[in-house]
Amino acid sequence: MLPYGRQSIDRSDVEAVIATLGSDWLTTGPRVAQFEKDIEAVAGAPATTVTNGTTALHAAYAAAGVGPGDEVVVTPMTFVATASSASLFGATVVFADVEDETANLDPAAVEAVVTDRTRAIAAVDYAGHPAEYDALRKIAEPLEAVLIGDAAHAIGSTYHGRPVGTLADLTTFSFFPTKNLTTAEGGAVASTSPELLERARTFKNIGMVRDPARLRRPDEGGWWYEVHGYGLNYRLPDVLCALGSSQLSRLAQFKAKRQYLTARYDELLADVPGLRLPIQREGVDPMRHLYPVRILDGRRREVYDRLRAAGIGVQVNYIPVYWHPVYEDLGYRRGMCPVAERFYAEELSLPLFVDLTDDDQDRVVEELRTILIG
């Protein structure tokens, strides 16, 4: 089965991990700090690493101070964690519809649902294409709401010359194997705000405080630390951080290959009827994580089944979050975000990963053409 996404591991990655296994530090050591510096160089903002993209979101909502009585505006066109991480803090999730062109959070839809209880607005850079953060910030600032960017798809992307880590108040990343780079499991939170980043860093470290300037009893001894608020152990170990630094050293190559494959899909599929291709807005330089086409005329299920039967592992990204029973049981109903639901009904992610060959891509295109044209 040709997968829709897959990691790219080379000898340098293996050697980085082996070297760490032979060192004195398997976790909370120097490779964590190095990986965070490497992320900052790409994201444009200081970062703290965490165990995965979901815990990155959980730490970001903790940093934003989300809690019971707060509302968090979220896109429905995402993996459930973008919403559920806020729900775990007792916040009310408010879903706002997406743009038809990009499947990103629609600023006009956000403006229609925000209230004086809005604590955070969480956008997703769907498929690697950054959301309209400048417009979203204009909505968030008067409300003193925290703007969160779920950039799980988008490390390496830029928006009008700015890297994704600088666009929101807090930005989260995922390093799952199908993402733009991998640490096996892993993630990060980045922020241009030292205060917000420190909150996220403390939360992911079980709430432990060691900074003498923040301690209530700073003279107890060198072993002393304090817990001022609850946190969880979301620390990413040195072994995985070593893999991440090695992967980041090749991020420009990964981006070039993904852009090449995207342009090739654009060309090969341009004349196929019943198919709508993804767009790229002016000023956006995306690290394309997914290649999401839209299958028209109600044929998405047929195309999905036939491609999978042919050994091509297409995927659907994503089920509208409020369709899941966990939200349905809270009273959320289908029909709330019609643009997102229409997008879901048509979306199909074609294989896209760094080691995808031209022959593999030709096979995908030919199978898709055969199904749609006959």
UniProtKB/TrEMBL annotation:
Keyword Transferase among record annotations = yes
- Named cofactor requirement(s): pyridoxal 5'-phosphate
Q: Which UniProt keywords apply?
A: Aminotransferase, Pyridoxal phosphate, Transferase
Per the record, the domain of life is Bacteria
Q: Name one GO molecular function term.
A: transaminase activity
Matching Pfam families, A to Z? DegT_DnrJ_EryC1
**InterPro entries on file:** DegT/StrS_aminotransferase, PyrdxlP-dep_Trfase, PyrdxlP-dep_Trfase_major, PyrdxlP-dep_Trfase_small
Membership in a protein family: Belongs to the DegT/DnrJ/EryC1 family.
Q: What is this protein called?
A: DegT/DnrJ/EryC1/StrS family aminotransferase
